[in-house]
Amino acid sequence: MAKPRGFEFWRSTLKGARYVVAPMVEQSELAWRLLSRRHGAELCYTPMLHAQVFVRDANYRRENLYNEVNQEDRPLITQFCANDPEVFIQAALLTQDYCDAIDLNLGCPQMIAKRGHYGVFLQDEWDLLEKMIKLADEKLSVPITCKIRVFPEIDKTVKYAKMLEKAGCQLLTIHGRTKDQKGASTGIASWKHIKAVREAVNIPVFANGNIQHLSDVQLCMEETGVQGVMSAEGNLHNPALFEGRSPPVWEMAEEYLGVVEKHPPCSLSYVRAHIFKLWHHTLQIHQDLREELAKAKNVAGIAEVNRQLKQRCQQEMAKDESEWTRTGLPFPHWICQPYVRPPPKDPNTENGQRASETKAVSVKRALEDSDAPNDSLSKNKQKKKARNPHKNFCPELKPKYIKCEQCGNPKGNKCVFNLCRGCCKRKAFKEVADCLGAGLLFRDVLWKYTNTLMDIFTRTLFELYFYYIYCLPK
């Protein structure tokens, strides 16, 4: 039976999904997906999985997909990052029976993606991407989809999308930001780019970016004409976003913790990260509980912190409204609402003033020395200084290390060969030698082993001689 393609795939397999939860590393696990589906999400993605690790490591496969199979969690798309067609296909073949489509991540802009050469850092390698998608379209029993970022130029973005469609992509998700729009430089996503792509291709398109409320979803669909809208950060701060509700934070937190207990196992780091996101605004006020949440050792400990936050917020609700409306947020801090990043700073301004108007002159920070007051150190170094008052940060006073004769790493202080531990271990093993400084006793162990064998051999000969003399019949 031929696999569904394009709009048929979107209508039949994905059931015409419009409200989509994005693939998020260590954040869109089974428990969170089930919670989001309860509150209006119609399609979810797994977290981004590393194709090479997925092929190599059976435990990785079990922990990130096989152990999370649940009939309530459909339709589901599994996302991979990859840069090798053969590895990508191997990973996808191991996955296709557990999901409804395979997505290739071409949108991750983080430094780890740059080092691993995947995500948005493949967007200029069109020949490679065409080969990967064509091969996936031919070999897999489920459709192949892609999630991309835009180029600064709309025309180039459209050509890019059409190339992916021609190669075999059956659904395209477009994050309306460039690869440089991240962190403090995130800025606003361009719906114009998304609209241009939607009008140029003949496959379903999902939009991603600028989604904080249900009204944003509706506005985006009207302006761009896309089939669906994907949310990442908006969903993390308010899982009921697609319902158009902004419930109290503790309501969502308690429900999420209940899902975690019902569908184990779930990594404690995932759970803690979700609670941090949900309680983000409140934890700016109750910072003592922020530390308690970070120290929690299990789900019960996290639930206790959630209970304390709920109790404090309910006490605030009983007070005069003016007491809890000073936060500058559109809703009280205990209501689920998005975190709005501050806009990128104008490089020509400083604290709202033109650089030419500021009196202070920008100069480089002086080199730190160990006798300087703590204020001259960075925050990170001040923390280290607090832990170890005798630590110095002056480069001239730092000890100079003698280099290993073979690899250039610092040599062991007591190594008889003037090598680092790794090189010393290899040399001692090869030459059956000892290095007391590194605690390597290959020669000594061999000598003891040889003596033991000689003792056993001598004793055996003596026993045979004794048996021959005294036990054998004459």
UniProtKB/TrEMBL annotation:
Record's keyword terms, sorted: Cytoplasm, Flavoprotein, NAD, NADP, Nucleus, Oxidoreductase, tRNA processing
Biased composition (Basic residues): 380-390
Gene3D superfamilies: Aldolase class I
CC per GO annotation: cytoplasm; nucleus
SUPFAM superfamilies cross-referenced by the UniProt entry: FMN-linked oxidoreductases
Catalytic activity: 5,6-dihydrouridine(16) in tRNA + NADP(+) = uridine(16) in tRNA + NADPH + H(+); 5,6-dihydrouridine(17) in tRNA + NADP(+) = uridine(17) in tRNA + NADPH + H(+); 5,6-dihydrouridine(17) in tRNA + NAD(+) = uridine(17) in tRNA + NADH + H(+); 5,6-dihydrouridine(16) in tRNA + NAD(+) = uridine(16) in tRNA + NADH + H(+)
Subcellular location: Cytoplasm; Nucleus
Region Disordered, residue ranges: 342-392
Enzyme kind, highest EC tier: oxidoreductase
Keyword Lipid metabolism: no
InterPro entries the UniProt entry points to: Aldolase_TIM, DUS-like_FMN-bd
Similarity-based family: Belongs to the Dus family. Dus1 subfamily.
Biological role stated in the UniProt entry: Catalyzes the synthesis of dihydrouridine, a modified base found in the D-loop of most tRNAs. Specifically modifies U16 and U17 in cytoplasmic tRNAs. Affects the level of some mature tRNA and thereby the total cellular translation.
Protein name per UniProt: tRNA-dihydrouridine(16/17) synthase [NAD(P)(+)]-like
